[in-house]
Amino acid sequence: MFIDTRNVEQNTVIETTVCIIGGGVAGITLALEMSKAGVDACILESGGFGPDDETRDLYRGENVGLPYTFADGSRSRYFGGSSNCWGGWCRPLDPWDFEKRDWIPHSGWPFGLEELAPYYARTHDLLKLGPQNFDPAYWEREIGRPDVRRISLSTGDMRDTVAQFSPPVRFGKVYREELQRSPRVRVYLYANVLNIDADAQGTSISRLQVGTISGRRLSVTAKIFVLATGGIENARLLLASNNVHSTGLGNANDLVGRYFMDHPRMMSGKVRFRQGIKRNKLYDIKYHYQNAAVSANGTKISSQFAPSQEWMQREKLLNSRVWLYSRWYGEGSAGSEALIRCKEALMQKDQPGRSLKADIATMAAHPLDTVGFGLTRLLQWPALITDVTLQAIAEAVPDPDSRVTLSPDRRDRFGMPRVRVEWRLGEQVQRTFDKTFSLLAKELQQAGVADVQLDAPIEGRRWPAKLEGTWHHMGTTRMHDSPREGVVDRDGKVHGISNLYIGGSSVFPTVGANFPTITIAALSLRLAGHLIRQLDLPDVVANSRLEAANSAMMSIPAQSQIDTLPIAASTLTPSLMKER
Hints:
CATH superfamily of the largest domain: FAD/NAD(P)-binding domain
Distance between the termini: 21 Å
CATH topology of the largest domain: FAD/NAD(P)-binding domain
CATH class of the largest domain: Alpha Beta
Radius of gyration: 24 Å
Shape: globular
CATH architecture of the largest domain: 3-Layer(bba) Sandwich
Strand content: 15-25%
Helix content: 25-40%
């Protein structure tokens, strides 16, 4: 059931069993699981079914670190959350991403890949992915095209990996009807949480204070509360709920908002293919979103190069992914940039200060670049590729000084402090970019595929203007068994608070170099099972899911490699497969 909170009677008290704050990937996944288990739940969603300027403004704040966009154009504050604007990339974290690595401060999860493996398996249905197989040889064989072939790497220091694409699933659209039909779940639209009220000791949450932009005020009581509003807003709500403890909830050790991470992204060099080498679409990101060539059995994929575990350990580097990036005709020109802005405006992703009229005038002044870029993007003609470079994303170091705090003087229309985001990246990240680009250049040359002329190294220098984030907000309520090192425990419960949990990528202790949505979904499925068990419901659905998860975990070796030992559908019980 969907309810417009703007029409709810003033000062209403909403009662439920599980209250989920946020209607994104984590929140909707949790609600679906609660519904299947027969648990009464509600979702509080800040927006409606589409974007609007007043709601979008609530995300805005100050950037005080590296140049970084974290609100407009990078997040969607309406039902479905960031799934409304994601590209669909899906690949589980590598096994070593969960491990404590002595060359990476504050690294390591409380559990390993084997704990999440059965939940990763279940995400394939949730995210509409293909088979539970990320082996590059399998996909090369299934695609079976001469222009989509693996490159044989010689040193063993770098490997090729595969990510699958979700269609992408827009959670707010795909699962809207199921939630509308659910007798157990109520979704409150335009419902903004203004404060999380705790008891006098700050050890239990009693209620939420909720408001609408139109002026309604109400409250919500529940047995369990789950905060799932994203890597920045999760921290903001905890810090702003400071009527019991002046530093906010869950912040006894000054950890809330710290360890803010995103995957930095950079380009480097010029790639010149050797004579007789055909263009290979398997590793070129420009062919990975819409081109049917890099797909098999209805699933589109992307292949990237990644360093081996042994090489990272030997060189004391972070994880990374790197691929080829073809530049289209007109790309980067004033006309092409104006065209992109116009498309974003039509999709209501425009940012403050933009002028649609000015962008149309710019396109008219540069017709060749504008039309050439638009047609090349649409038709993907290889003849209109002007050059090829390398693009990489790197793992971020968990840095306590990279953080989200509250602005001392800027407030939104509810009077809540806006955020201040200070994104920091150190020399270890720079060295990872330099070494990764250098290693792949060597591999391509030794394989006889291409010669690569790299840009100058960046280690020890100021970050170049071409550095970008990928809008993966992570780490600000990190998971750790000790309250001195994490905000939540291994089950996502806030340390010291009996009934407050956190979902989403803000709990990631380390982030690897893979795209976070599939891990957010897996953690949400795992959290849902934990909450159902905590509620101690005699529900056969909950019991069957627990038994299925235990069975799947028993079938997967602790040191399994996600590439070469995919999670087979046969590890799931027939009843679970039917319910999914």
